[in-house]
Design brief:
Layout: H1 16-28, H2 34-43, H3 53-62
Helix pairs in contact: 2-3
């Protein structure tokens, strides 16, 4: 029978220093997403640039670090305002005018 991997459930590409930095960043800046964390880790040389961004995204998702857990902090989506009626959207299309000759 095939045996299970001895390191099942742990990451192979993220060293312990990078994992500690991810936790530190999420505590200090809870709204950072995994891509921003990845770019910080590469810039500060915690991980090499050959590590895929998906590794950091999987780690953040698996350890439930994806969203801020502060109950007083409301998660805001892109193009969302705090009050209704503050943002309006319009759709305009300029088409060529065809005149019909009688």
């Amino acid at each position: 029978m095939p045996q299970e991997w001895s390191d099942k459930g742990s990451t192979r590409v993220l060293p312990d220093t990078a994992i500690e930095e991810i936790y530190r960043l999420k505590e200090a800046f809870p709204k950072l997403n995994a891509t921003q964390i990845y770019h910080h880790l590469v810039k500060e040389s915690f991980i090499p640039a050959t590590v895929n961004v998906c590794a950091v995204q999987r780690f953040v998702k698996k350890h439930d670090l994806k969203s801020a857990r502060n109950p007083t902090m409301r998660d805001r989506k892109a193009f969302e305002e705090d009050e209704p009626g503050k943002m309006w959207q319009a759709d305009t299309v300029y088409l060529p005018s065809y005149s019909v000759k009688p």
